[in-house]
Design a protein that fits this description.
By secondary structure, this protein is an alpha+beta fold. The chain has helices at about 25-30, 45-55, 75-90, 100-115, 120-130, 135-150, 160-170, 180-195, 205-210, 240-250, 255-260, 310-325, 335-350, 360-365, 375-390, 395-410, 495-510, and strands at about 215-220, 230-235, 260-265, 270-275, 290-295, 415-420, 420-425, 430-435, 440-445, 450-455, 460-465, 475-485, 485-495.
């Protein structure tokens, strides 16, 4: 056994702040600190209260043994070493010549990452050193350490109510210098409790910015249609917070509709949906090669086309998918009529284009490349000329709304479409479309639009991505699903195998809510 029997590293089952004067850090020290044992003869006296309070107040000298009792000598040694590192980080003790404050804080966080049994010890050490510390700069450094600690590591279920009470008291005094950062620590701890804390320690650039007091960074999110949304994120901002902020700008308030939107992380050719509870900084790598984008993944709630930003986002996403051949038009002999109408709507959606006809080059830009070979250019131009003669030009916002409403009537609207090159199922003609919505996965023939395979999401058992078997092959996704009381396994080969995998996972997560 390495720690006192009364302390446990299990996470707390509640995050409520204790009422009244109970659960102060002095109470915790009296019950659990190693040094409290020597005060048992003073029980109930004013001397006991003063001595207990001293246990959780700043000290000028390094501790010689851990604050909490450990029977494992290695843990005791690590605890005392950590206290000295903490003092060096806070400026309460001199550092070795080549030791930086960044190295000090990394050492503390790495210890917590490797030794869960020391979480409570480190929490108590930091709280002790920020309490009644006469040096304001040291106090600030201590709170910066606590800011990181609360976002990464939870205290035990025993310490949790005491730590929560300490932060609540520290944040309730607006005159104190650490009022604001104490509130941030409260928020960090709450999110850590709900979502599990960040996975990766800060990169050096992020850490240096934090130590300089730059707790937030500017972040650009690429919106559908090429717009950019500018926001500021903190070290422990989760995707859910940014999604709610963007949705507020779009006039989206219903929780179910907010959950239909997803942030994606793009790096090179890799695309991964970010779950609402995931920390954005776990994706924002130091090389700045990661781009965040917004996309509507599900369509469970009716669209409300009143807010201009809302309209722009939906128009931008549908246009992007349409031009890349992922919005399957209704099969008919009048394909040129559909493409012509959609080309005119795109033209009118631009500012100051209501009184001009699109050029031949613009018409081709407004037409999906996948249709260039099958469309009759002359018939398309004739249909556009007819539209120009018979229809009044639309304002950009009205053209976008009509484009959106047209897309919503298409047979496979609401699916996230991928193109597969090969499959183990010889009943599926390839290449073909492989599409996912809130209910099912389907394989669709691109020319006839015949559905050759349907896999209900509720029947999906497991998935895994597979590496290419040779240089001329693509990655693949293997799916196991139940069918007629038996398990079927099939694989599909496509360049975006991992993106398809993650899209299905996030869709399952959201539809189970």
């Amino acid at each position: 056994q390495s720690s006192a029997p009364s302390l446990t590293s299990e996470p707390n089952s509640t995050m409520s702040v204790p009422a009244g004067d109970n659960y102060t850090m002095t109470d915790f020290a009296t019950a659990y600190f190693r040094a409290a044992r020597s005060m048992q003869g003073l029980k109930g006296t004013s001397a006991e209260k003063k001595s207990a309070a001293d246990l959780v107040q700043h000290t000028k000298v390094p501790i010689q043994e851990s604050l909490l009792p450990y029977s494992d000598s290695e843990l005791n040694e690590l605890a005392t070493k950590n206290f000295l590192t903490l003092m060096q980080f806070m400026g309460d003790h001199s550092k070795p010549k080549r030791q930086t404050e960044t190295a000090c804080i990394y050492e503390i966080l790495q210890l917590c990452k490797e030794k869960e049994t020391l979480h409570d010890e480190v929490y108590c050490q930091v709280i002790k050193q920020v309490t009644q510390n006469p040096k304001q700069e040291s106090v600030l450094r201590g709170w910066l350490a606590l800011n990181l600690l609360t976002g990464y590591f939870l205290p035990s279920k025993i310490l949790m109510p005491y730590a929560t009470k300490f932060l609540q008291l520290a944040s309730s005094d607006p005159s104190s210098t650490h009022h604001d950062i104490a509130k941030i620590c409260q928020s960090n701890l709450r999110k850590n409790f709900m979502y599990g804390g960040r996975r990766h320690l800060p990169f050096p650039v992020e850490m240096e910015a934090l130590l300089k007091g730059h707790g937030a960074r500017r972040l650009e999110i690429l919106m559908p249609g090429g717009m950019e949304y500018l926001t500021r994120v903190r070290t422990f901002t989760v995707a859910k917070e940014v999604l709610q902020e963007i949705c507020e700008q779009m006039g989206v308030g219903e929780p179910e509709e907010i959950q239909d939107f997803v942030l994606f992380a793009l790096r090179s050719k890799t695309v991964k949906p970010i779950k609402p509870e995931e920390y954005l900084h776990d994706y924002l790598l130091e090389d700045k090669l990661v781009t965040l984008t917004l996309r509507r993944l599900l369509w469970r709630t009716p669209l409300h086309l009143e807010n201009e930003t809302y309209i722009d986002v939906h128009y931008g996403q549908m246009l992007w998918d349409y031009l890349r051949g992922k919005m399957l038009l209704s099969q008919s002999e009048e394909m040129e009529m559909q493409v012509g109408l959609l080309a005119m709507l795109q033209h009118w959606a631009k500012e100051d284009q209501q009184n001009s006809a699109p050029s031949r080059e613009e018409v081709m830009e407004y037409t999906p490349k996948i249709l260039h070979a099958s469309i009759n250019p002359k018939a398309l131009q004739n249909h556009i000329a007819t539209l120009l003669r018979t229809r009044q030009p639309l304002r950009p916002v009205d053209a976008k709304i009509e484009f959106i409403e047209y897309m919503m009537k298409l047979p496979f609207f609401g699916y996230n479409v991928f193109i597969i090159e090969r499959t183990s199922d010889n009943t599926i003609p390839v290449p073909c479309f492989f599409a996912v919505n809130k209910d099912e996965i389907i394989a669709v023939d691109g020319s006839t639009q015949a559905v050759s395979c349907v896999i209900p999401l509720k029947e999906l058992q497991k998935m895994r991505t597979l590496q290419p078997t040779s240089p001329d092959r693509l990655p693949s996704l293997e799916l196991s699903y139940s069918s007629a009381a038996s398990i079927k396994v099939m694989w599909v080969e496509l360049a975006q195998a991992k993106e398809l995998y993650h899209t299905i996972v996030v869709t399952l997560d959201k539809t189970e809510l």
